[in-house]
TrEMBL record:
Domain of life: Bacteria
Coiled coil: 250-312
GO terms for biological process, alphabetical: transmembrane transport
Bias type Basic and acidic residues, positions: 1-24, 50-63
Membrane topology qualifier: Single-pass membrane protein
UniProt-annotated stretches for the region Disordered: 1-95
Protein name (Swiss-Prot/TrEMBL): Membrane fusion protein (Multidrug efflux system)
Residue ranges constituting the Multidrug resistance protein MdtA-like barrel-sandwich hybrid domain according to the UniProt record: 141-340
Primary location recorded for the protein, binned into one broad class: membrane
Domain p-hydroxybenzoic acid efflux pump subunit AaeA-like beta-barrel: from-to ranges: 344-433
Spans through the membrane: 103-124
Lineage: Bacteria, Pseudomonadati, Pseudomonadota, Alphaproteobacteria, Hyphomicrobiales
InterPro entries: AaeA-lik-b-barrel (IPR058634), MdtA-like_BSH (IPR058625), MFP (IPR050739)
Source organism: Acuticoccus sediminis
Length: 440
């Protein structure tokens, strides 16, 4: 209470001081009429001998009385327009200051408690879980391309259509391919006929060779016998006293032996010719057989081309990015469309500092941004043996210059177990937030 009285007195003194500076007191008006009992004008004022004291007239507006000590100051400070001095501020309420102090203390304690709770939660979470938002749905997208040239006349699928293995996606005009297949079939028939002729020629040449070899064998026997007979006649003629063998017999025997030797030589020549004929016929047979094989390959290729006229799906999935229409001309290698497989998985790029505790088979909680209310479950399938930047087209070269260490990221393959991802419109490239249970 004493402090309030003192503040009110100080404020009253400041108001008086400010009022005196702004509004000085007006001098008392002079009157021409003098009261009968008034002293003359040149008479000294009474009490002049007590000192030179100036009487100050009372202001026109009396000073307001100070409020009671137990009443708080509520009026606004007086305005001092034109003086340049700020108005006096009222004294602050102690209760307001107490409330403000308590509010600041409460806010400070709340911030400290929230920070401590967040730190404790983060510490406990980081010990048992590893999570990253650098993760995406991935899969082995199949690019469907034409395997033969031609004009499309039936594109039988549309965007996002479900297909199964063997589903016909498009067809190519078959007329040209069918004509090429017919030509290949005709060439194969001709080659097979030529092979049969070659086989017959080989048989004839072989039979001739066999006959020539038989004749050669007979000639060899005849030559040997006649030569032995001539040699015996000559031996008997040279013996003394043997007059049974005449000179004519010896000459006839020798002549017969010479003829037999000539026949043997001719037989050998005929055999050699027959052997050469067999070799020639065999070569023609092999050539004809090779032509048959070539014709068979051409026919097989033509049949494969006919089969390629019908473009079919090799996997189960959904059609995407159809780039052709009926009437489009395609060539081998031209991409027609893509098929997103049902066998999708998650590729999560974890920091290398997070890999401790991540093992194949560890359970994973998966949240797909497109379906935040669905709890997907999966497991770690494998961890790539190498950071992603090591497989870049232009890998970093840190051998020269200044080195700045950057935490690398390692791809981790995560397989989705349940629910079946085929029941949701999910495809490669969609954002995922996987959370791996460490040490499980």
């Amino acid at each position: 209470m004493t402090d309030q009285i003192t503040r009110f007195e100080e404020r009253g003194a400041r108001e008086d001081h400010a009022r005196d500076r702004v509004d000085p007191p007006d001098p008392a008006p002079e009157t021409t009429a003098r009261a009968p009992d008034a002293p003359p004008a040149d008479a000294p004022p009474p009490g002049a001998g007590e000192g030179r004291r100036r009487e100050v007239p009372e202001p026109e507006h009396p000073e307001p009385a100070a409020p009671p000590a137990d009443t708080p100051a509520a009026e606004a400070p007086p305005s001092h327009e034109g003086t340049g001095e700020p108005a006096a501020q009222p004294a602050a309420d102690p209760r307001a200051r107490t409330r403000r102090r308590r509010l600041l203390l409460f806010l400070g304690l709340s911030v400290v408690l929230l920070a401590a709770a967040f730190a404790a939660y983060y510490f406990l979470y980081a010990v048992h879980y590893a999570s990253t938002d650098d993760a995406f749905i991935d899969g082995k997208i199949v690019r469907v391309s034409a395997e033969t040239s031609g004009v499309l006349f039936d594109v039988s699928v549309t965007e996002n259509q479900r297909v199964e293995p063997g589903t016909v996606l498009a067809r190519i005009d078959p007329r040209q391919a069918n004509a090429q297949r017919d030509v290949a079939a005709a060439q194969l028939s001709q080659s097979r006929a030529a092979l049969k002729v070659a086989d017959a020629q080989v048989g004839e040449a072989q039979a001739t060779l066999d006959a020539r070899r038989s004749a050669q064998n007979a000639a060899e026997v005849a030559a040997k016998n006649t030569s032995d007979t001539a040699d015996r006649y000559e031996s008997l003629a040279h013996r003394s006293g043997n007059l049974a063998i005449s000179q004519q017999d010896i000459e006839d025997a020798r002549s017969t032996a010479d003829q037999a030797a000539a026949d043997l030589a001719e037989a050998k020549g005929a055999t050699a010719e027959a052997e050469a004929a067999v070799v020639g016929a065999t070569a023609q047979q092999e050539q004809a057989a090779a032509e048959v094989k070539a014709a068979e390959a051409q026919l097989a290729d033509a049949e494969v081309t006919v089969d390629f006229l019908s473009v079919q799906s090799r996997i189960a999935g959904h059609v995407a990015q159809v780039a052709v229409n009926d009437g489009s001309y395609v060539a081998p290698g031209n991409q027609l469309m893509a098929i997103v497989p049902d066998d999708l998985y998650v590729t999560a790029n974890f920091k290398e500092t997070q890999l401790e505790g991540i093992e194949p088979g560890a359970p994973v909680d998966i949240r797909i941004d497109a379906f935040p209310d669905v709890d997907f479950k999966g497991h770690v399938d494998s961890i790539q043996h190498g950071a992603g930047q090591a497989f870049a087209i232009l890998p970093a070269q840190n051998a020269t210059g200044n080195f700045v260490k950057v935490v690398q990221r390692v791809p981790v393959k995560i397989v989705i177990d349940s629910p079946s991802i085929a029941d949701y419109p999910v495809g490669p490239g969609m954002s995922v937030v996987p959370t791996v249970h460490l040490g499980s």
